[in-house]
Amino acid sequence: MIVRDYNDIIKSDRNRVVSDAKWSSVRMLLAEDGMGFSFHITFLEAGSEHTFEYKNHFESVYCMQGSGSITDLATGETHLIRPGVMYALDQHDRHTLRAEEDLVMACVFNPPVTGSEVHREDGSYALETT
Amino acid sequence: MIVRDYNDIIKSDRNRVVSDAKWSSVRMLLAEDGMGFSFHITFLEAGSEHTFEYKNHFESVYCMQGSGSITDLATGETHLIRPGVMYALDQHDRHTLRAEEDLVMACVFNPPVTGSEVHREDGSYALETT
């Protein structure tokens, strides 16, 4: 059994925290944990906008706090984000996420993120092999 | 892209809500969604105790609200549960979860739950094929 506390990680295990422009993510579970998925608590700063396309991953995102919106760039459709809303990128959907207030999201990736990916210019992660 | 709102589901999509003795779970993503994992928001009633052993599944559980504890029945070790604590049953660990206050948890299963499983007497889910 693996037990990890978000509150401890942000104080003393900073190599599990990754940040980029106006977002940061706490890596609660990575590929090396052997669960077959990774699990992340991700923060997006109020007023920020992010375009991602996980060509090699499925991702689900559950909003725990905050408000904003997500636009599916294939269809142009926009959905409001508030606590309780989940979106799942089952088509590796290219999307723009906007934070109206600070957003706190619980994210799951399959295949699991290894921890060494970087967002490429097209908003994707490369598929890494461990 | 799949978008679902927990708040809508509990009002008007009750076939996504499953309940048993002193717990209930909202099935945000199931096997049929094709993500390779399932995602659930689970409630455990204050004062309740639950023993589970997912022999055929990996499960991670992230505490969003409430307090309690989890005991690893193989080692006897007990960990406190509070918001921000995650446990991951990477060894299919048999465990007892106790809710001191009402617990609200974000749960991920791999392989994904199909929705037709029931908890067996030993606290496990059978492995279902879709």
From TrEMBL, chains A, B:
Gene3D superfamilies named in the record: Jelly Rolls
Top-level EC class as recorded in UniProt: lyase
Pathway where this protein functions: Amine and polyamine biosynthesis; ectoine biosynthesis; L-ectoine from L-aspartate 4-semialdehyde: step 3/3
A single MF term (Gene Ontology): ectoine synthase activity
One of the GO biological process terms: ectoine biosynthetic process
EC number: 4.2.1.108
Catalysis: reaction(s): (2S)-4-acetamido-2-aminobutanoate = L-ectoine + H2O
Pfam family, one: Ectoine_synth
Keywords, in A-Z order: Lyase
UniProt record similarity statement: Belongs to the ectoine synthase family.
Protein name: L-ectoine synthase
Lineage: Bacteria, Pseudomonadati, Pseudomonadota, Alphaproteobacteria, Rhodobacterales
Gene encoding the protein: ectC
